[in-house]
Each structure stands twice: as C-alpha cells, then as structure tokens.
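Quick one from the shared queue. A colleague (R.T.) flagged Catalase core domain-containing protein as missing a structural entry in our internal table.

Convert sequence to structure tokens.
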Amino acid sequence: MALNYTTSYGSPVNYPHAAQRVSTTGPALLQDFHHIDSLAHLARERIPERLVHAKGAGAYGYFQLTQPLDDLTSQPIFLKTNVGNKVKATVRFSTVAGESGSADTSRDPHGIAIKLKTDQGNLDWVCLNTPIFFIRDPAKYPDLTHATKRNPQTNLKDHDMFWDFFSQNPETVHQIMILFSDRGTPDGFHQQHAHAGTTFKFVKENDNGTTSFIYYKLHVRTTQVKTLTAAQATTLAGTDPDYGTRLLYDAIETANSKPGHTENDFPHWTVYIQTMTPEQAKGEFAHIAFDVTKVWPQSKFPLREIGKLVLNENPKNYFDEIEQLGFSPSHLIPYVEATPDPLLQARLFIYPDTQRYRLGVNNKQLPCNAPLPETKIANYQRAGMASYVSQGNRPNYQSSTQSLNFVGPKGAIDSQINDNKRQEIFDGSAYRDLSMVTADDFVQPRYLWETVWNDAQKQTFVDNVSGHLKVVKNPAIIQNQLLVFYEVDPILAERIAKAIGVPFIPPPKIRSNFLITTTMANYTTSYGSPVNVPHAAQRLGTNGPALLQDFHHIDNLAHLARERIPERLVHAKGAGAYGIFKLTKSLVDITSQTVFHDITAPPIPCTVRFSTVGGESGSADTARDPHGFAIKLKTEQGNLDWVCLNTPTFFIRDPAKYPDLTHATKRNPQTNLKDHDMFWDFFSRNPETVHQIMMLFSDRGTPNGFHQQHGHAGTTFKFVKENANGTTSFTYYKLHVRTSEVKTLTAAQATELAGTDPDYGTKLLYDAIETARNKPAPTDEDFPHWTVYIQTMTHEQATGQFAKIAFDVTKVWPHADFPLREIGKLILDKNPQNYFDEIEQLAFSPSHLIPYVETSPDPLLQARLFIYPDTQRYRLGVNNKQLPCNAPHPDAKVANYQRAGKASFVSQGNRPNYQSSTQSLNFVGPKGAIDSQINDNKRQEIFNGSVYRDLSTIKIPDDFEQPFDLWARVWSENERVAFVNNVSAHLKGVKNPAIVQEQLYVFYQVDPGLAQGIAQKLGVVFDPKLHSNFVHFFITTTMSFNYTTSYGSPVNYPHAAQRVGTTGPALLQDYHHIDNLAHLARERIPERIVHAKGAGAYGYFQLTQPLDDLTSQPIFLKTNVGAKVQATVRFSTVAGESGSADTSRDPHGIAVKLKTDQGNLDWVCLNTPIFFIRDPA
C-alpha cells in the first residue's frame, strides 16, 4: 500500500509540492511550515566530506574463518570452534585524495575498509590497495595530505606541490613506484588487493597461565588484480567518473540474479596474515617491523590463510549505510591489540576524531556503526548531540551502588597494561624521530625495479611518472625527484630524465632529511609558540608508542580532521576572483539608490564565484550543468549580491518543488550513482522545466570556461525611487551580465576535458587574470569582463498584459518588449591568495540588498530569500557574515542586536543587545531602508486574496510558447541538431521506457517534429495519441548608528514583522525577521562540560623576581623584571551549569592566558593545590 506523504513530524500533507502564498501572485508565507522545513532540511543534507577517502562505494557481506589461529590468539572468532562461521561485514572502497565528485579511476591509492560486527564488538580492518604507505612518521601526515590536495591559492591540483613534498621525503619512493605503476589505476574497486599496512598483534592466553603475543600484518587478496592503463583511466574519468562504483554494484546485482549462485559469483577475497615474533621485531627485522614504508618479505614471512571475505548485498540507502560509516584501526576486540607502529599510533587518534567531527560524538550509535545488539554497550559516555541510544538510568560515573563490572574478559583492550609478559618493554626518554633517510630506504624500491618488474612494467612506470613530472613548473623540484630515483637505480633516473627531456647530473650523495633552511617566519603552534621539529612525532624511546604530551602533533591531526566543512548542496564546485563594478549609465530615473547614479564615482569592489550546480566539489568543470555566476558588490550601504546562472530561466517556478528537483539531479540514494531515470522522471512529470532543459542540452550547457559565459539573475527584483513631489514609484527589473562572446564546448570536447583536465574552467579563469596582470599596461579589456544590463517592467505591465511572465522564472522577458539597458561593466582583475578563506567561505544570497533595491513576489525568489542564508548558517556558522570575505564595506557600519554565537570575530562592544531606552539604535534610517516599503501602499504591490497554494498547473500553450520560439525561431539548424544529439544521448541512459515516452510527450508539446526527431535518434516509436493531457503537475534616539541587517543595510522597523495586511500571516520575504530568529536560535554555543559558570577580566602579569637560574625563557629573566605581559583571566566553578550559583561548594577554576611575543602561555589553575584523581582515564 502506498504511504501517505507527511511532514517530518508525521502529519499528513495534501499538496507538498505547492508553496503557500498570498492569492495567486503574492509573496510566500512564513506559516507554511512544511515548505520551510523542507528547504531548511535540504540546506543541511551535506555533512563534511572525509578529508581523505571522500569518494567511495560500499557493500555488505561476511568474513568466514577457514583456517584457525588457536596457536596465535585466544580471540574466539579466530579459533577452531568457529571455522565456517560467518561474521557480518560492511566494506567501503574509496580513492584517497579526490573529493566526493572526483573520478573513481584517478591515479591514487585506494582504500578498502572492512567492519566486522562480532559478538564482542566491532573489529575494523582499515586497508589500502598497496602493502605500504608514503611515510612512517605521522607528524608528516598533514603535509602529505596538503601536498596531494589542491593548491590553497588556485584551488587546482598542483604538480609542483606534489613532487616538492615527495622529492624532499625520499622514504616515499617505494609507494610512489607502486602508485605510478598500473596498480595505481585499478580496474574497479573490487578487483584489487587490500593490505592493512600497519602492524597489529595477536595475544594468546596459554594453558600454563602465561600469555604470549605475536605481531601480524593483514592482507585481503583477490583471485586476480585487474588494472587500467593510464589512457583507459583518463578516458573513463571523462565518460564514466563513477566507473568503480557502478562495477561493484552491478557485480553484486548480477550475482544475486543468477540462478543457483555461489559465493564465487560474488566479489570475494582470501584473507591472509603474515606473522613476526617479538624476537624478530627486536633483532634482525627491527628496521621493517613497524616501518610502513617497507614490506615484510614473503620469503621470510610467508602468507598464512585465515579466511575469506564475500560481498553479496548492496545497500538500500548509500548515505545512511555507507557515507556515515566510521572506520578506525582503534576499533579492536579482545586479544587483538595495537603496536608501537608510529603511523598506527597516530591513526588510533585521528580516525575516530575525524568521525566525531563529521558525524558527531555519538556516531557509534548510528545503525551502520553500532555493534551487534548482543554486544551490550555499557560505559559512562552520555548525552552529546544526536544521542539515539539510551543507557537508561544507570549512573554516568563510577557509582558505589550501581557500578559497572571492570573485571571483563582477560583479553579486554587494555588487559596488557601492567602485564609485562604480554606487552613490549620500552626504555628511553621522550624522543623525536627525524625520519632520517638511510640506504635501507632504497633497498626494497630497488628490488621492485630490478627484480620484480619486467621490461614492460618498467616502461609503464617511466611513462606514467614522466608524464606527471613534465607538468612541474619548477625545474629544481624535478631535479630533486630525479635525485631520489637515482638512489633507487641510476638507470631509472636517467630514463625518466630522458623521457621528460631534461639533463640530469648525478649527486655526490642523497640528502639525509628534508629540513630546509629558509628566510620564512619561524614555525609555531596554533597558539604562537615556536616548534623546532614539527614533522617528527614524540614517542617513548626509538621504538615506543606515541605520547599524549605531544600537543602539537595531536593539535595538527585534530585540525586536519576538521579542515572540511559541508560542501554546498548545489554549486559545490567552483572558482572565484576579485574585481570591480563600474557604473557606465545612470539609473537616476528609476531608483534613489546612489550607487546607480554617478558614473564618475569610484568603482565598487566585488567578489565573484563561478560554479557548476549539480556536481560535487571534485566533479568536472565541463559537466553538462547550469553554471552559477554569483557577484558580491561591497557598497558603503551594505552588500548587494547578484546571484545568477548562465541561463536566463530556471527549471521550476514553484519553490516547493526545489527539494525534489535537487534530489532528482543528484545521486541515486541507493547506488550513489548519477541516475538518468531519476533525472528524466522528474522533468517529464514537470513540463514547465522544458525551457531550461532545452538550454541545458544545447551547447550552452557546456560553456568553454567559467568566464566565457553570460550571467542572468533570473528572478525579478525592483528598483524604488523617491520622487521630487514626495511620492514613490517602483520598477521591476531583471539583471543580465553579458560577455562579449559566449564560447561553448561540444559534448565530445566537454567529455574529453572531464577526463584530462577536470579543473579546466578554474585553470582558464586563473590563467586569464594572471596573463592580463603580467602585461606591461593592461586595460580592462585584457581581463575577463562583462557588460551589465537590466530589463525593466512597470507594475502595470506586470499586472496586465505580461502578468504570465513577470514573476515566472521558467520564462524570459522578450527583448522586443523589454530591451536591454546597459548600466555598467564588471571586470575581474585579481586572483585570491587563499581559495578556502576568500572563495569557499563566500556566502551569497539574493536577500543581501541595499536601500531602494527590493524584492518582488517572484515565488522562487521568495524561497531563495530563506534558503540561501539558512544554508550558510549551517555551512559556515551563524556569524558567517563576519568572515572577511562576507563582511560589508568598512563604511557600512553593522549595528543591531545580534550577539554571540559560535566564532564571533567582530564585537559590537558594550552596546545593549536589546532595544534599550537609554542606548537604543536609530530606526529612522534612510527612506530606502530594506523594509521602507512596508505600510507604504504607494511603493509596494497590493495583494488581494487569501492564503493560496499554486499547484503549478501546466498551461497549454503558455508553458510551451517560449520553448517553441527557441527551437523554431532562435536556434540555427546546427544548434537544433546539437540539441537533438545531446538530449538523445542522455535519454539513452534511461532504463524505464515509460519515462522516455513521458519526456517525448513534453517535447511534443514544444514541437511535434522535435519529439519525432529525438524518438528516431533513440530508435523508439512515439505515438502522442497514447498520452493524456497535462493536469497534474518605533523609537527616535540620539545614537550615532542606524540599525542595520547583519550584512550592513539599514532597517527602519526591526521590531515589526511583515505580514499580509493588518491581520494576515507573516511573510517569508521578511529576511531580516527570519535572520534575526535564526541568529537568535544559534546564539548559544555548547557550554563547557566543566567550568561552565564563570566571570573574567583583563589585566597583566608583571615579573618581580627573575628566574635566570631556572630557565632561558625571556619573560622570566632579570632583563624583564617590571615588564608587563597582557593577561586575560577567567574564573569559574567546576561542576555547575552556566546558570548555577557562584557560591556553590565546588572547586573553582582560575585560568590565566598570557599573550607573550613568543606565543600564548596558559596557566590553567584551581583554587586548590591538588585534584581528585591522578589517572586521567
């Protein structure tokens, strides 16, 4: 039985795809909870992607023990009694460096993470498709990640960064050689091996009461590794970027549909281990035991089979079941333990810490991560955001009456502590390993080159690595990397140098480390204190575990785990630049906004971001997609945002359909693949989309670079003018930003570039600006530039002859009736210095308006006024408007009652944060303030009617007149042929023939010949007779500041919500009201779990007695006696919440922050010289 559609809290909804508004032409309503809830949820559907392993696929299956390990461990799942038993497994495959929309076939290490759900907890095997890794010292991990990601300025993959890091860290050469062999481009996710890489240990309780342990490495091997050549991988990146995901899904579905299928029909692997005794690890093989840049030779440590892994079920919902998976090598079960492997030590921290950030502190409660029901969770962790699973009323501390049992299995994860018979003994002080490179680092790479690879494999490696190195711009980096290859084998270095076409002079000897002396500033911690050896982690002695006291290492990893914020749900992939807007024609006749009056005024600074709409952050710039073109003008009266697309129309006019539109053009929630059936199912059922579909599948859908396209705001705004006679008037307008020549790509060119250069548009924009800047005397025309136009429509036209197009974004305003009127020039003349800070954090919204520039009842605009800023509140935080990239012009003084909230950078001082009778803000601002039109019937629209839902009924011929004009009168014959080819190629991917027929009927309404031409191209029969017609579908103060919005524009009546008439419902267009409420809802950041209640003050610390005999720290030396160091002090109670009494019996905190010229020094104190416990556990 079909389910009834409901709200998120379970109440039925009759018309979920029609937004409420005032009568048939009025604004949207704030009372339409379901519409607002849908948009607000949509804005939050993206969580931060994984910093590494972002793109992936997954499946379910089982691990089955085939060969017992009774001689090695006491863990029951590996014992003889469990041979043949199946343990539930969830597996996720991934690339490492690519973003969520990147190609599966990129040259990259590939992840294979396996979660076994045992009755004693989850055991995670976190693997790569290579048995080694780039580095052994985890302190280098942030640098490795950054060097293989995007350039922070250009936001492009950077070959110089890549090879600069690897050439300075020669221990990476072993992994580099495997990566640039064909193993770096596996043929599908499931046709490759998996290797845990780092070393673990099995523990055994012996019959005589003693314990023993043995080290092991895990290998999960397929019967046949299949790889792609570099050319095949590149082609597939363009034609099918989700190739590996699709192959895995289809392999499982094909096997399940096969009659009498066996486990060998499914993707399957044999699981092996290699083992090493503690004596071997301390003796002859100490140099490889815990060094993940090296393998354990199988001749010395043979593979031992233990079981098999079979994948036989696809997920039903990719996000819930796969994307939310949280893997960690710290997820161990009794008798399976960690080792001092340095990289493992760091991963024990960063993996779960990353999941706490991405998924929340209770991520282990999510069904995909939760252990089996029979594994009863019992600890003292409680509460935290999104706590789904209760531990009831048990005390959340070690109670004397209801305490938990600490005497668990002998093999519990910390049983080895204080048990010298079953763990390693480490002697030595705190130690930093500089990862000195020795001759031993080249032994295994040399063996791989000289002995393992045949001539063809050697040539493939030389071709692959030279092809990548050729792109490096700095010749010194190439030479540095050739030096590394020279240490592997001189012939190898000479062959690569010859392939690149550069001379190579052999070195006297290899460098011992990568510490480079420069004239740059000293390296410091995040709080400003200098660090001598930031790329070496502290550990106990030369072979012991990592130390908790190594704050900088932990801080680096914790920050790295949080570098990804949620990507935009739409417009995720983009590029940006700075520029200016120059007014060339005055608009004094239609608006009182002075920005548009004086053509001799200085240019207005602006920031522009270009984007694709549907692709994720790693997708191709050349994908067929509407392209975003967002412009932020920083005026002295606040920010004015022009939010445009490269098409003058949009798919829908009713914003209630926006969530469905977004979902249908994104990935299938089960397969995580782009789905042609979903795409065309939506568009065929919503025929008003056909106009935009025709533009999308013309060559305008694949522009040749971001900056060689037009921009169109699409939705309708209005200019307001205060007339000389005291009256006001307004004019509706549409904005157009037109380049001198639109350049497009053919479908074939776009597909090829998606494979060879997915960042093509970003690179083209960056290079165009740099090329112009490098000219001796560049002019405006040398830079990317556009002419800005408007079309205007009177209120009488909008309510009369042209009512059907005035506020319908699926239609254009014909130039014949509404000619273009030039207003200015847009020039982009500067690239950003840091892409994330300056471009990725940009927050655009059509609600960012300035006086005398106002909204209209355009239905889509009404929804965008809410969802755009609401999305940014989620992505960037409630104070996103304070970020430098979003903050208004310095002369646009922000003054309102919004305060606090997470990451509040800009203070409004000690002004009251409410409407005070003594220090209130001025509400009588400019006549054109953003709400001046309220209660002024002479300057705003009059709406007669009750609250109304428009069902978006398709009107024939209204909804097809303009598409017909585009097809029959505007396009040339070549453009018509290109459209038929493009759209039929996409429709061919649809599996359900009924959907194809529905869409053909839509095209039939445009022109019968168009529908028949596409049908013929598809090879299907189309009979329009088989289809039915479309039927569905105020206080005066003396303060010096005017009250403003959060982005700097003045407001006259901030304490009066807009509504329909004097008794009607509130309006969705009342942006300031919604922004105020939304900010208010986010003003509280999580309080401290301890020390919540407190007070603070500023002051100084003054040295009175020097400590020259004890320390060399300058602030404590005789020369600084009497000097004052700035101090901030916070006093607190410990256990009480933020509203508790200051006089409660409680330890009291006194935290002192000294801001020295060498960094911050924090003294974190109590009012007692002792504490309750000494063991931090």
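The two ends are 53 Å apart (CA to CA).
The domain at 56-136+172-375 is CATH 2.40.180.10 (Catalase HpII,  Chain A, domain 1).
Added to the table.
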